[in-house]
């Protein structure tokens, strides 16, 4: 656990929302401007509900591999 302290804990590479889900939501919900916050919230909720369960499972299943890559990169950027 010691390796997870410090900068590792804040890595966006280890946050499933950052490395997978936000790009899906952005593509589906933000392809057009929204006239108000309520419209954006509705679009994001709709996009979230349309994400296949398999996508969410794969995102979670990829986490150990991403964690190992982050540690190997000493917390720096990796692909």
From TrEMBL:
GO terms for molecular function: nucleic acid binding. InterPro entries: RNaseH_sf. It comes from the Eukaryota. This is DDE-1 domain-containing protein.
């Amino acid at each position: 656990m010691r390796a997870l302290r410090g900068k590792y804990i804040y890595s966006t590479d280890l946050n499933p929302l950052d490395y997978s889900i936000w790009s899906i939501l952005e593509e589906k919900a933000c392809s057009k401007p929204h006239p108000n916050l309520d419209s954006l919230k509705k679009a994001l909720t709709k996009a979230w509900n349309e994400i296949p369960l398999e996508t969410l499972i794969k995102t979670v299943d990829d986490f150990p591999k991403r964690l190992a890559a982050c540690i190997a990169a000493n917390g720096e950027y990796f692909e």
